[in-house]
Amino acid sequence: MSTPEAPKDFIRTIVAEDLASGKHETVVTRFPPEPNGYLHIGHARAICLNFGIAEEFGGRCHLRLDDTNPAKEEARYVAAIQEDIRWLGYDWGEHLYYASDYFETLYQWAEHLIEHGKAYVDEQDPETIRAQRGTLTEPGVESPYRDRPKEESLDLFRRMRAGEFPDGAMVLRARIDMASPNLNLRDPVIYRILHKPHPHAGDQWCIYPMYDFAHGQSDAIEGITHSLCSLEFENHRPLYDWFLDNLPVPHRPRQIEFARFNLSYTVMSKRKLLRLVEEGRVSGWDDPRMPTLSGLRRRGYTPSSIRSFMAKTGITKTGGTVEVALLEATLRDELNETAPRRMAVLRPLKLTITNWPAGRTVPVEVPNHPGRPELGTREVPFGGSLWIERDDFREEPPKKFFRLAPGREVRLRYAFNVVCDEVVKDASGRVVELKCRYDPESRGGGGRKVKGIIHWVSAEHGVPAEVRLYDHLFRLPDPEAEGDFLEALNPASLETVRAVLEPALAAAGAGERFQFERAGYFWPDPIDHRPEAPVFNRIVALRDSWAKIEKKGG
RNA sequence: UACCCGAUGGUGUAAUUGGCAACACAACAGGUUUUGGUCCUGUCGUUCCAGGUUCGAGUCCUGGUCGGGUAGCCA
């Protein structure tokens, strides 16, 4: 399942070298999400990287829930995380781990540090500890407890575990260097008291290790060779290595950092996504406009398009913003190849053929994919009463508009040419119907060549449906550029229309993706669609060069 | 005026590790087409700056500029 043309990035280069030099016999990576929220497309990069490398080099990739903080984590996220990773196409086999399963070992290692004079219990309150940490330009101040006898620290630490002290009463700190220019090395807190049951470990702990004291050690326990994380952990690497240097770990992993990525027209932080959900700006974590994997899945994105997108954007240490246009182009590329074509009228306008024999219906043979004849054809019923796209008619056509207008001729795709003779309006002046004349000689493309070709659905046979037209959630490339990102929300990110589908679409099965000709790629909404009440989502629109021409001319 | 990291078209990545700056997306111009889709062709760069080494520098050296990260008992 490896993604084609995967670029050889600096991390893969390191892995290849470590394998070639014999430093490692096999590569072991891990994807370590904290179960405190839903996975988004930013996580997909880490997933594709870690699982991708394991796959390409014949190693393995572990799924590890990084659950060291019961105050923020919930068991319900674990299932969602697994579902998202599987959906993306990756499998951790039996290698499902929890950092919390290592708590006992971690605890023993903490005592080991104390016994070697490399950790101490600090009874100062959080404010004092913070004040003593110093600033970016000034060194910190040593805690008065820093040099207390190790026996005393050991006793206190054991009593911390036994639950003798309330939350915040004291912490265990690594004893490193309060003057280090790297703040992470200024005697970091490694254990805190938290009288809170743990979603995975249950109620056996009331002290919990901090990330820094858990991550590298977990890597070591699992035999991880390359521990890949995002750039913001770069400053933590010296600490990561310090623990490995000072603990009797069974293995030596290496941390390598890569740049996180940003996508234009969206936000990625869990906090902001949560706000969208909580304030009801979207329908939930799986709203098709959300950059979450569950949102993209519901929207209709294919996992392969996301993997391929990740391969195209590559892995570097340069922070940047990828244009959503690339994601969309990647999806279109795939769907153009694979999606069967259908006709659907999104904003229906009645077209009546005045010279069509009353009550007559003829089947029109239509290819399922013009570029792939092997996909066969289907019959679409054609009659004298049709729906066409409202946008395909202009009473006063602008320059370069070559669709229908009074007196103009267009081809009804795969069927006949028609000329518009009369425009019918209602009392308010709104166009409600076009009366046209068809050319019996023009069937299937015979007769005059015309510039305009439009799609249609027989009014008698068409199936009404709700169609949800999704657009970017934000109207600015960088929603957080200025002020509140909510002000950048795109008011038109969802438009729901009452459309009419060609009959064949009524039988669409779950998971089937189609191109609605001239409109875009669509699929039945996985939750709301029912055969008797169809609901389709627009996954992505087709490129629309007429819209560009019109925008320029207007 | 701390420490760490980064800088190549509008965007994201390449460049045989010192040898003609390449690919994709976007934009623009044209061609093909029973989807204004697809497909095809073309256009779009002082490789952050200044010096230096070299026959030759995106790549090496020195200095600078700009951008990002870091002061949770979050991860």
Structure description:
By secondary structure, the chain is of the alpha/beta class. The chain has helices spanning 10-20, 41-56, 76-88, 103-115, 126-132, 150-162, 211-222, 237-246, 270-278, 293-299, 303-313, 324-338, 545-553; strands at residues 28-31, 60-65, 96-98, 119-122, 171-174, 189-193, 207-209, 226-230, 254-258, 261-263, 320-322, 341-342, 344-345, 348-353, 361-367, 377-383, 385-389, 409-412, 417-425, 431-439, 453-454, 456-458, 463-470, 494-501, 514-516, 520-524, 535-541. The protein has 13 helices and 27 strands. A 7-stranded mixed beta sheet has the order 12-25-26-27-23-24-13. A 7-stranded mixed beta sheet has the order 21-18-19-20-14-17-22, with no helix packed on it. The protein has a 4-stranded antiparallel beta sheet with strand order 4-5-6-7. The chain is elongated, with a radius of gyration of 31 Å. The protein binds one RNA strand of 75 nucleotides through helix 5, strand 6, helix 7, strand 11 and helix 12.
